[in-house]
Protein 1
Amino acid sequence: MKNLPLSKVYQLLEPGPVVLLTTARRGRANIMTMSWHMMVEFEPPLVACIVSDANYSFAALRATRECVIVLPAVELAATVAGIGNCSGRDVDKFEKFRLTPAPAARVAPPLIVEGFANLECRVVDTRLVNEYNLFVLEVLKAWTDPAQKNPRTIHHRGDGRFVVDGRTITLKSRMR
Amino acid sequence: MKNLPLSKVYQLLEPGPVVLLTTARRGRANIMTMSWHMMVEFEPPLVACIVSDANYSFAALRATRECVIVLPAVELAATVAGIGNCSGRDVDKFEKFRLTPAPAARVAPPLIVEGFANLECRVVDTRLVNEYNLFVLEVLKAWTDPAQKNPRTIHHRGDGRFVVDGRTITLKSRMR
């Protein structure tokens, strides 16, 4: 995997893709599916996300303050839905979904080799966790897989429906 | 425009579309383009968003605590980019972009008739405004335009590139 400059991280998350989130606690890694996230700052990249306290990952994220955001392309769509349909309480999701963990550089939770990008994160603000389950993360290190060219992401529309990236248009824009 | 049950609002925002945000202050309405937003709660629908203090809309939103989130389909893409390229300090964007304001039911800022959905919002949490420009909004009332069937939204990828909704896939999912 190849290093991605932190200044470009927003280009991965701003379009609103469904992502995976890995955590690790007491030597055990877990994965959840997440689509409630947004960029907060360009650089250093800050990301806000909601991790429900109904998710097994919640306690691990709150206790360890570390996670990895993994970007899956559409080829992993069934895996992404499957990961959202079971709990790390009951199952080792890396094994069940035959995903390949790889060590991260700056945090304990693993990267997922099958993702086209991996973002190593630490929790930097928990003020809204109790009320909204809202964590603010800082991206410490970002990786992309050069072998996955032009990955198409998926976006959750509710009730198991996902919209896949279509064509790209370019407009004269001062938006960064 | 037709009433949308508040329980379905997340289906509009969760896929991560670029949206417009209207505010009103001292009798003057303004519009900005926004793509840093996420769902926080299903019902009542809560939404977090970043409105930079470099935007003219920031002061209006902070002072009045009201806004409307407007969802534009791809046909409005050039308008959406144009709105992001100028400031309400200098120009009346409704006039410049020939958009049609309509009165909202619960808040002072106007709806935009050309949007395929309009969400009337009030600010419910400002604890992270000073540090991150992060507002938490509650959606009080939601409208859709029944004449716009299957609208395709756009998602910002940085530097004026936007990805347009492609095909929809359905997977067995317990994700709401």
Note: The longest helix of chain A spans residues 56-64.
Protein 2
Amino acid sequence: MIIDKLTTPYYAVIFSTIVSEDLDGYLETAERMEELAKEQKGYLGIESARNKIGITVSYWQTLDDIVLWKNNIEHTEARNLGREKWYKKYQLRICKVESEYGFEK
Amino acid sequence: MIIDKLTTPYYAVIFSTIVSEDLDGYLETAERMEELAKEQKGYLGIESARNKIGITVSYWQTLDDIVLWKNNIEHTEARNLGREKWYKKYQLRICKVESEYGFEK
């Protein structure tokens, strides 16, 4: 799903990943994290795609909302598991969305 | 490919797409645009993933570099073709990357 235009300024977290061979439990946890993110304060939406690499972009109202989500206990446990088992490499970027435009047929 | 840590501040363009059924010429043009982007002033890197939706994130030194790339003639022609033929819907967000961290095994 693509997230439609939101009201700037807001924040995007770009999470780019390369996964390992052992993906036991990964999909369930990724889905659970997406559900859990939706319940958090300041959550605005999430977009996700994967083939050779994975890119998940989540959108948030403020930087404080991103910190709260980062420190969520269940999220922290999932992140630890991710580092231990599922991820070979990732890069996470926190960005302020300054402008946007869309196209739809 | 995942782009490693860059020096903040810099800019990200998050381009989220839903493609149509007619993808004739799409892949070649997408690849050509990626090659062309790499030659532009201020280009820092590109990350791309696709399954249900496509997400391409390109990284740039300044907002001016993004405007120059937007106005590149060959890019403009490709964008017009994209709107006409390949894209059902897209959203493009211009963001300032404020912080980032990475993990690698």
Note: Residues 17 and 90 of chain A are 4 Å apart (CA to CA).
